[in-house]
Design a protein that fits this description.
Number of helices: 6
Distance between the termini: 34 Å
CATH superfamily of the largest domain: ATP synthase, F1 complex, gamma subunit
CATH topology of the largest domain: Pyruvate Kinase, Chain: A, domain 1
Oligomer: single chain
Order of helices and strands: HEHEHHEEHH
Helix content: 55-70%
Strand order of the largest sheet: 2-1-3-4
Strand content: 5-15%
Number of strands: 4
Largest sheet: 4 strands, mixed
Protein backbone atom coordinates (compact mmCIF):
# COMPACT_ATOMS: atom_id res chain seq x y z
CA UNK A 1 0.00 0.00 0.00
CA UNK A 2 1.32 3.45 -0.96
CA UNK A 3 2.36 5.80 1.82
CA UNK A 4 0.63 9.09 2.59
CA UNK A 5 3.48 11.07 1.04
CA UNK A 6 3.21 9.11 -2.23
CA UNK A 7 -0.54 9.63 -2.38
CA UNK A 8 -0.18 13.36 -1.60
CA UNK A 9 2.36 13.65 -4.41
CA UNK A 10 -0.04 11.98 -6.84
CA UNK A 11 -2.90 14.24 -5.76
CA UNK A 12 -0.79 17.38 -6.31
CA UNK A 13 0.24 16.15 -9.76
CA UNK A 14 -3.37 15.48 -10.75
CA UNK A 15 -4.46 18.88 -9.42
CA UNK A 16 -1.83 20.59 -11.57
CA UNK A 17 -3.00 18.58 -14.58
CA UNK A 18 -6.60 19.58 -13.86
CA UNK A 19 -5.59 23.25 -13.87
CA UNK A 20 -4.12 22.78 -17.36
CA UNK A 21 -7.14 20.92 -18.75
CA UNK A 22 -9.50 23.50 -17.22
CA UNK A 23 -7.54 26.34 -18.84
CA UNK A 24 -7.56 24.57 -22.20
CA UNK A 25 -11.31 24.04 -21.88
CA UNK A 26 -11.91 27.76 -21.28
CA UNK A 27 -9.65 28.78 -24.16
CA UNK A 28 -11.38 26.33 -26.53
CA UNK A 29 -14.82 27.57 -25.41
CA UNK A 30 -13.81 31.14 -26.24
CA UNK A 31 -12.40 30.19 -29.63
CA UNK A 32 -15.41 27.99 -30.38
CA UNK A 33 -17.79 30.92 -30.06
CA UNK A 34 -15.86 32.96 -32.61
CA UNK A 35 -15.46 30.01 -34.98
CA UNK A 36 -19.16 29.18 -34.69
CA UNK A 37 -20.16 32.72 -35.61
CA UNK A 38 -17.88 32.63 -38.66
CA UNK A 39 -19.24 29.36 -40.04
CA UNK A 40 -22.87 30.29 -39.36
CA UNK A 41 -22.36 33.54 -41.29
CA UNK A 42 -20.73 31.73 -44.24
CA UNK A 43 -23.14 28.80 -44.66
CA UNK A 44 -25.99 30.68 -46.46
CA UNK A 45 -23.53 32.31 -48.87
CA UNK A 46 -21.76 29.00 -49.55
CA UNK A 47 -25.05 27.20 -50.22
CA UNK A 48 -26.25 29.92 -52.57
CA UNK A 49 -22.92 30.04 -54.40
CA UNK A 50 -23.06 26.30 -54.97
CA UNK A 51 -26.62 26.54 -56.31
CA UNK A 52 -25.53 29.30 -58.67
CA UNK A 53 -22.58 27.25 -59.88
CA UNK A 54 -24.76 24.18 -60.45
CA UNK A 55 -27.29 26.19 -62.44
CA UNK A 56 -24.60 27.82 -64.58
CA UNK A 57 -22.75 24.55 -65.23
CA UNK A 58 -25.96 22.90 -66.42
CA UNK A 59 -26.30 25.53 -69.19
CA UNK A 60 -22.86 25.36 -70.79
CA UNK A 61 -20.99 22.83 -72.89
CA UNK A 62 -18.55 20.70 -70.94
CA UNK A 63 -16.04 20.54 -73.80
CA UNK A 64 -14.82 24.07 -73.21
CA UNK A 65 -14.50 23.71 -69.44
CA UNK A 66 -11.88 21.26 -68.13
CA UNK A 67 -13.34 21.40 -64.63
CA UNK A 68 -16.65 20.03 -65.94
CA UNK A 69 -15.11 17.28 -68.06
CA UNK A 70 -15.51 13.79 -66.67
CA UNK A 71 -13.03 11.00 -67.27
CA UNK A 72 -12.27 7.59 -65.84
CA UNK A 73 -10.76 8.16 -62.36
CA UNK A 74 -7.36 6.55 -62.76
CA UNK A 75 -5.74 8.74 -60.09
CA UNK A 76 -7.71 10.02 -57.12
CA UNK A 77 -6.65 12.83 -54.80
CA UNK A 78 -8.15 12.99 -51.29
CA UNK A 79 -7.92 16.28 -49.40
CA UNK A 80 -7.99 15.55 -45.65
CA UNK A 81 -8.77 18.45 -43.30
CA UNK A 82 -7.31 17.89 -39.82
CA UNK A 83 -5.85 20.07 -37.06
CA UNK A 84 -2.32 21.16 -36.28
CA UNK A 85 -2.73 20.19 -32.62
CA UNK A 86 -4.09 17.23 -30.70
CA UNK A 87 -5.90 16.94 -27.33
CA UNK A 88 -9.21 17.01 -29.21
CA UNK A 89 -10.58 13.55 -28.57
CA UNK A 90 -11.51 11.63 -31.73
CA UNK A 91 -11.57 14.75 -33.92
CA UNK A 92 -8.45 13.98 -35.96
CA UNK A 93 -8.76 10.21 -35.83
CA UNK A 94 -12.25 9.99 -37.27
CA UNK A 95 -11.54 12.19 -40.30
CA UNK A 96 -8.30 10.33 -41.08
CA UNK A 97 -10.12 6.99 -40.81
CA UNK A 98 -12.77 8.20 -43.25
CA UNK A 99 -10.09 9.39 -45.67
CA UNK A 100 -8.29 6.04 -45.46
CA UNK A 101 -11.61 4.28 -46.02
CA UNK A 102 -12.23 6.39 -49.14
CA UNK A 103 -8.73 5.54 -50.33
CA UNK A 104 -9.26 1.83 -49.75
CA UNK A 105 -12.51 1.88 -51.72
CA UNK A 106 -10.85 3.57 -54.70
CA UNK A 107 -7.82 1.31 -54.46
CA UNK A 108 -10.20 -1.65 -54.64
CA UNK A 109 -11.35 -0.29 -58.02
CA UNK A 110 -7.74 -0.23 -59.25
CA UNK A 111 -7.46 3.54 -58.84
CA UNK A 112 -4.20 5.11 -57.74
CA UNK A 113 -4.77 7.14 -54.55
CA UNK A 114 -2.78 10.14 -53.32
CA UNK A 115 -3.47 12.34 -50.31
CA UNK A 116 -3.39 16.11 -49.84
CA UNK A 117 -3.52 16.58 -46.05
CA UNK A 118 -4.29 19.85 -44.29
CA UNK A 119 -2.97 20.07 -40.73
CA UNK A 120 0.03 18.50 -39.01
CA UNK A 121 -1.94 15.67 -37.40
CA UNK A 122 -3.26 14.33 -40.68
CA UNK A 123 0.10 14.78 -42.38
CA UNK A 124 1.93 12.91 -39.62
CA UNK A 125 -0.55 10.03 -39.55
CA UNK A 126 -0.53 9.55 -43.33
CA UNK A 127 3.27 9.66 -43.44
CA UNK A 128 3.44 7.12 -40.62
CA UNK A 129 1.14 4.84 -42.63
CA UNK A 130 3.36 5.38 -45.68
CA UNK A 131 0.62 6.85 -47.86
CA UNK A 132 1.64 8.88 -50.90
CA UNK A 133 1.50 12.61 -50.16
CA UNK A 134 1.04 14.86 -53.19
CA UNK A 135 0.80 18.23 -51.38
CA UNK A 136 0.27 19.37 -47.80
CA UNK A 137 -0.64 22.54 -45.91
CA UNK A 138 -0.09 23.27 -42.21
CA UNK A 139 -0.07 26.13 -39.75
CA UNK A 140 -3.54 27.65 -40.14
CA UNK A 141 -6.06 25.14 -38.77
CA UNK A 142 -6.73 27.34 -35.72
CA UNK A 143 -7.79 30.38 -37.78
CA UNK A 144 -7.95 29.75 -41.54
CA UNK A 145 -8.32 32.54 -44.09
CA UNK A 146 -9.78 32.69 -47.57
CA UNK A 147 -6.25 32.90 -48.98
CA UNK A 148 -5.58 29.43 -47.57
CA UNK A 149 -8.57 28.05 -49.48
CA UNK A 150 -7.35 29.80 -52.64
CA UNK A 151 -3.93 28.13 -52.35
CA UNK A 152 -5.49 24.69 -51.86
CA UNK A 153 -7.85 25.05 -54.83
CA UNK A 154 -5.07 26.44 -57.03
CA UNK A 155 -3.01 23.29 -56.41
CA UNK A 156 -5.99 20.95 -56.94
CA UNK A 157 -7.18 22.68 -60.12
CA UNK A 158 -3.65 22.72 -61.54
CA UNK A 159 -3.23 18.99 -60.93
CA UNK A 160 -6.69 18.21 -62.34
CA UNK A 161 -6.24 20.36 -65.45
CA UNK A 162 -2.84 18.80 -66.12
CA UNK A 163 -4.28 15.29 -65.89
CA UNK A 164 -2.33 14.44 -62.72
CA UNK A 165 -5.63 13.83 -60.91
CA UNK A 166 -8.89 12.52 -62.33
CA UNK A 167 -10.99 12.88 -59.19
CA UNK A 168 -10.62 15.11 -56.12
CA UNK A 169 -12.50 14.36 -52.88
CA UNK A 170 -12.64 16.60 -49.80
CA UNK A 171 -12.97 14.95 -46.36
CA UNK A 172 -13.59 17.10 -43.27
CA UNK A 173 -15.50 17.34 -39.99
CA UNK A 174 -18.78 19.26 -40.26
CA UNK A 175 -19.70 21.20 -37.13
CA UNK A 176 -23.09 20.28 -35.65
CA UNK A 177 -22.57 21.23 -32.01
CA UNK A 178 -19.83 21.28 -29.41
CA UNK A 179 -20.59 17.62 -28.73
CA UNK A 180 -21.22 16.40 -32.29
CA UNK A 181 -19.01 16.58 -35.38
CA UNK A 182 -19.96 14.64 -38.51
CA UNK A 183 -17.42 13.53 -41.09
CA UNK A 184 -18.31 14.62 -44.64
CA UNK A 185 -16.83 13.48 -47.96
CA UNK A 186 -17.52 15.89 -50.85
CA UNK A 187 -16.52 15.53 -54.48
CA UNK A 188 -14.71 18.69 -55.59
CA UNK A 189 -13.49 17.78 -59.07
CA UNK A 190 -14.93 17.19 -61.53
CA UNK A 191 -17.77 19.53 -60.63
CA UNK A 192 -20.70 17.28 -59.64
CA UNK A 193 -23.81 17.44 -61.77
CA UNK A 194 -26.56 19.56 -60.27
CA UNK A 195 -29.95 18.36 -59.16
CA UNK A 196 -31.46 20.07 -62.21
CA UNK A 197 -29.77 17.53 -64.48
CA UNK A 198 -32.23 14.80 -63.53
CA UNK A 199 -35.37 16.96 -63.69
CA UNK A 200 -37.91 17.06 -66.46
CA UNK A 201 -38.73 20.29 -68.29
CA UNK A 202 -41.87 20.75 -66.18
CA UNK A 203 -39.99 20.22 -62.92
CA UNK A 204 -37.29 22.66 -63.96
CA UNK A 205 -39.88 25.30 -64.84
CA UNK A 206 -41.43 24.91 -61.38
CA UNK A 207 -38.02 25.41 -59.77
CA UNK A 208 -37.60 28.70 -61.60
CA UNK A 209 -34.66 29.89 -63.64
CA UNK A 210 -31.72 32.08 -62.66
CA UNK A 211 -30.86 35.07 -64.84
CA UNK A 212 -27.16 35.65 -65.55
CA UNK A 213 -25.62 38.95 -66.59
CA UNK A 214 -23.40 38.47 -68.50
CA UNK A 215 -24.34 35.05 -69.87
CA UNK A 216 -23.48 31.85 -68.01
CA UNK A 217 -20.90 30.90 -70.66
CA UNK A 218 -18.91 34.03 -69.86
CA UNK A 219 -19.19 33.63 -66.11
CA UNK A 220 -18.66 29.92 -65.76
CA UNK A 221 -14.85 29.90 -65.61
CA UNK A 222 -14.48 32.33 -62.71
CA UNK A 223 -17.69 31.08 -61.10
CA UNK A 224 -16.40 27.50 -60.91
CA UNK A 225 -13.13 28.54 -59.26
CA UNK A 226 -14.90 30.87 -56.85
CA UNK A 227 -17.40 28.18 -55.88
CA UNK A 228 -14.63 25.65 -55.22
CA UNK A 229 -12.75 28.17 -53.08
CA UNK A 230 -15.88 28.89 -51.03
CA UNK A 231 -16.50 25.15 -50.61
CA UNK A 232 -12.98 24.58 -49.28
CA UNK A 233 -13.12 27.71 -47.11
CA UNK A 234 -16.36 26.47 -45.62
CA UNK A 235 -14.75 23.08 -44.91
CA UNK A 236 -11.84 24.84 -43.17
CA UNK A 237 -14.19 26.87 -40.97
CA UNK A 238 -16.35 23.82 -40.23
CA UNK A 239 -13.23 21.93 -39.23
CA UNK A 240 -12.00 24.77 -37.01
CA UNK A 241 -15.30 25.00 -35.14
CA UNK A 242 -15.38 21.21 -34.83
CA UNK A 243 -11.82 21.16 -33.51
CA UNK A 244 -12.53 23.71 -30.76
CA UNK A 245 -15.77 21.96 -29.83
CA UNK A 246 -14.07 18.57 -29.65
CA UNK A 247 -11.15 19.96 -27.61
CA UNK A 248 -13.48 21.75 -25.20
CA UNK A 249 -15.43 18.53 -24.65
CA UNK A 250 -12.28 16.43 -24.29
CA UNK A 251 -10.74 18.83 -21.77
CA UNK A 252 -13.96 18.98 -19.77
CA UNK A 253 -14.02 15.19 -19.59
CA UNK A 254 -10.35 15.20 -18.59
CA UNK A 255 -11.04 17.70 -15.81
CA UNK A 256 -13.93 15.59 -14.53
CA UNK A 257 -11.79 12.46 -14.61
CA UNK A 258 -9.06 14.30 -12.72
CA UNK A 259 -11.58 15.29 -10.06
CA UNK A 260 -12.70 11.66 -9.74
CA UNK A 261 -9.08 10.55 -9.36
CA UNK A 262 -8.46 13.16 -6.67
CA UNK A 263 -11.51 11.95 -4.75
CA UNK A 264 -10.38 8.32 -4.96
CA UNK A 265 -6.81 9.16 -3.94
CA UNK A 266 -8.06 11.33 -1.07
CA UNK A 267 -10.12 8.40 0.17
CA UNK A 268 -7.06 6.15 -0.13
CA UNK A 269 -4.95 8.69 1.79
CA UNK A 270 -7.53 8.87 4.59
CA UNK A 271 -7.53 5.10 4.82
CA UNK A 272 -3.73 5.06 4.95
CA UNK A 273 -3.78 7.71 7.71
CA UNK A 274 -6.31 5.69 9.69
CA UNK A 275 -4.20 2.56 9.26
CA UNK A 276 -1.11 4.38 10.54
CA UNK A 277 -3.01 5.78 13.53
CA UNK A 278 -4.41 2.35 14.33
CA UNK A 279 -0.95 0.85 14.05
CA UNK A 280 0.49 3.48 16.41
CA UNK A 281 -2.29 2.85 18.95
CA UNK A 282 -1.65 -0.87 18.83
CA UNK A 283 2.07 -0.29 19.39
CA UNK A 284 1.36 1.97 22.38
CA UNK A 285 -1.04 -0.56 23.88
CA UNK A 286 1.42 -3.39 23.28
CA UNK A 287 4.22 -1.38 24.93
CA UNK A 288 2.02 -0.60 27.93
CA UNK A 289 1.10 -4.26 28.33
CA UNK A 290 4.78 -5.21 28.20
CA UNK A 291 5.62 -2.83 31.06
CA UNK A 292 2.96 -4.29 33.35
Amino acid sequence: MASQQDIKRRINTIRNTRKITKALELVSASKLRRAQLRIEALRPYADRTRDLMMEASSRVQTQGQPLLARREPGRVGIIVVTADRGLAGAFNGQVVRRALQEGTEHAGQNHEVVFLPIGRKGLGTLRFRRREIMSSWTGFSDRPTYADAEAIIAAAVKAYSAGELDLVVLVYNRFVSALVQQVEAVQLLPIPEGELEGMSAQERSQEGQMLFEPEAEELIGELLISSLEVTVYRALLESTASEHGARMTAMRNASENASDLIDSYTLAMNRARQAEITQEILEVVAGADALQ
